[in-house]
């Protein structure tokens, strides 16, 4: 039996190999259920057994009525045989039902979990630019709601569609052995259902898609609203946010209402048409019995079977909206599964050691959907062990350079060499394990302080954690907490102050013993005292390592080997702190301006 991890890897591999976007729906289903067809087949076999009383009961009832109405034509043994057969098929329903559901559930639940696992894996492999264009709430809706709708569709198919089809086949087949005339009448009902489905198919698909997209928008807005609550409260904007959400919810309500009305009219049209057909069937079979062309008991058989056919077809039609929702959800998750925007770099060369010699050669960069370059003709050679600081106004390209260094983005043109190797050839996973990044916006998760510091390190020791805490000036904070290192910090670290969160992030960098350090305003949230202590500790962290710093406070980069002054994506000045001050250019102006503010 394939493991869940194996199945998710197989899913991802097959989706990546698929180039043609046409026919995604059925290809996606095929990939999901490949390896589970035997379970579904066994489930179907046991369904046939457990459902057999529904098909056999009308025959037994007809036989018994015929026996009672004309006893002289039938043997008494027929009566007992029918009763025994009916008893056996009813009793066997219990074990066959359990086995039917067991095999079906094993397949569907496994696929549900594997599909979510595959989506998460795919999201981890997609490029940062792809994630920047999708709100997290939308992604959550795809992973949670859409996968649930696919699971519901799968169950509806096994519990509704296949049984309905079998009911129609068995009913028409048994009827045909007794009366081709009545069987022909039954067959006429099938085109009616096809016409009804065809008439409503386009409208239902459109309504489902509109509703699904609106729910995704709402999910994204809810996630954003929750994150903005502190800002909203601080500025007294609660009513504005409430009105914004109310407007979004009104749109969801409107789309949902239109979907419900369409489904209701769809179901009502189906019910009216089939009830009229059932009345016609009753009149037709009574007429045949009155003419002596069929036994009286067969009226009950035909009426029961025709009712079964109508209920099955009606069930199919009523299930169709759920099937449509499932297919729309497959379309939704396929947007991720078939996405080709994987990580910017796909190199395979693993770095055993990173010295930190970095070369930017004529680098241009612009973000997607814009013609404006953030970086232009950027050239820079950084020797191993150098500390390079970037300063400049907002939008000058400082953080973009750091994103290029971490491999989140790749140059629009030009290239970056790391230890004389083009970054296109380097395995990003092996490279990133050798660097430490402390971003401006601290990213923590809702675990303990220990878990956040040692994130991703399986063999870290207690001594390593304590050393990182000491270097990040976290000791006093840890000592004041009742649970110490095991204190839960809340979602995104909300139970900690901004400075405390920043120091946890810095401790995370220390513990990795990186060979290259990237600091994006890493001390921006610290008070002056903490900043001084962190700077002293950082001297130990960056000693002998290539270091890139983006800093707002110019005083924090006095020790840098070179300071790069950025403006409009270009390097306009370069030198040491003293050299740039003596130059009395842009850096000198920035220094004077910062002194005036302080």
UniProtKB/TrEMBL annotation:
GO cellular component: plasma membrane
CDD domains: ABC_6TM_exporters
Domain ABC transporter: 358-593
Superkingdom per UniProt: Bacteria
Location in or out of the cell: Cell membrane
Molecular function GO labels: ABC-type oligopeptide transporter activity; ATP binding; ATP hydrolysis activity
Protein name: ATP-binding cassette subfamily B protein
Record organism: Saliterribacillus persicus
């Amino acid at each position: 039996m394939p493991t869940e991890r194996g199945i998710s890897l197989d899913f991802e591999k097959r989706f990546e190999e698929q180039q043609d976007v046409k026919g995604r729906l059925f290809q996606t289903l095929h990939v999901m259920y490949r390896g589970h067809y035997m379970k579904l087949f066994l489930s179907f076999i046991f369904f046939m057994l457990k459902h057999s009383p529904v098909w056999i009961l009308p025959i037994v009832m007809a036989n018994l009525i015929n026996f009672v109405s004309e006893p002289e034509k039938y043997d008494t043994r027929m009566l007992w045989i029918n009763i025994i057969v009916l008893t056996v098929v009813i009793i066997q329903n219990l074990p066959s039902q359990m086995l039917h559901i067991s095999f079906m559930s094993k397949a569907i639940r496994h696929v549900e979990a594997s599909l979510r696992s595959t989506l998460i894996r795919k999201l981890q492999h997609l490029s940062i630019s792809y994630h920047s264009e999708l709100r997290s709430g939308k992604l959550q809706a795809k992973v949670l709601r859409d996968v649930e709708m696919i699971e519901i569709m799968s169950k509806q198919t096994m519990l509704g569609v296949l049984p309905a089809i079998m009911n129609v086949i068995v009913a028409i087949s048994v009827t045909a052995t007794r009366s081709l005339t009545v069987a022909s009448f039954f067959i006429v009902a099938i085109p009616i259902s096809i016409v009804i489905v065809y008439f409503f198919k386009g409208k239902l698909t459109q309504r489902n898609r509109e509703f699904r997209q609106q729910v995704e928008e709402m999910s994204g807005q809810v996630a954003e609203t929750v994150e903005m609550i502190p800002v909203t409260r601080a500025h007294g904007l609660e009513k504005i946010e409430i009105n914004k959400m109310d407007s979004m919810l009104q749109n969801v309500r409107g789309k949902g209402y239109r979907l419900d009305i369409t489904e209701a009219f769809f179901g009502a049209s189906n019910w009216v048409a089939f009830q009229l057909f059932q009345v016609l069937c009753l009149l037709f079979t009574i007429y045949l019995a009155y003419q002596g062309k069929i036994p009286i008991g067969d009226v009950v058989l035909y009426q029961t079977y025709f009712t079964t056919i109508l209920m099955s077809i009606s069930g199919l039609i009523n299930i169709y909206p759920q099937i449509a929702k499932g297919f729309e959800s497959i379309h939704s998750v396929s947007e991720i599964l078939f996405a080709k925007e994987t990580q910017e770099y796909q190199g395979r060369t693993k770095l055993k050691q990173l010295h930190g010699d970095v070369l930017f050669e004529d680098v241009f960069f612009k973000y997607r959907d814009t013609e404006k370059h953030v970086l232009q003709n950027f050239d820079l050679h950084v020797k191993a062990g150098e500390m390079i600081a970037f300063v400049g106004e907002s939008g000058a390209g400082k953080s973009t350079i750091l994103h290029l260094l971490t491999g989140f983005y790749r140059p629009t043109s030009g290239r970056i060499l790391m230890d004389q190797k083009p970054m296109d050839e380097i395995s990003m996973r092996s490279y990133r394990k050798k660097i430490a990044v402390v971003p401006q916006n601290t990213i923590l998760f809702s675990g303990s302080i220990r878990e956040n510091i040692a994130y991703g390190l399986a063999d870290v020791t207690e001594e390593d954690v304590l050393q990182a805490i000491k270097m990040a000036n976290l000791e006093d904070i840890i000592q004041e907490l009742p649970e110490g290192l095991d204190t839960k910090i809340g979602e995104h670290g909300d139970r900690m102050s901004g400075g405390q969160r920043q120091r946890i992030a810095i401790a995370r960098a220390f513990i990795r013993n990186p060979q290259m350090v990237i600091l994006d305003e890493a001390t921006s949230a610290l008070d002056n005292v903490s900043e001084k202590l962190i700077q002293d500790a950082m001297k130990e962290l960056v000693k002998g390592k290539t270091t890139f710093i983006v800093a707002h406070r110019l005083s924090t980069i006095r020790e840098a080997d070179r300071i790069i002054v950025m403006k409009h994506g270009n390097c306009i000045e370069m030198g040491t702190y003293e050299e740039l001050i003596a130059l009395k250019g842009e850096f000198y102006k920035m220094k004077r301006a910062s002194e005036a503010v302080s």
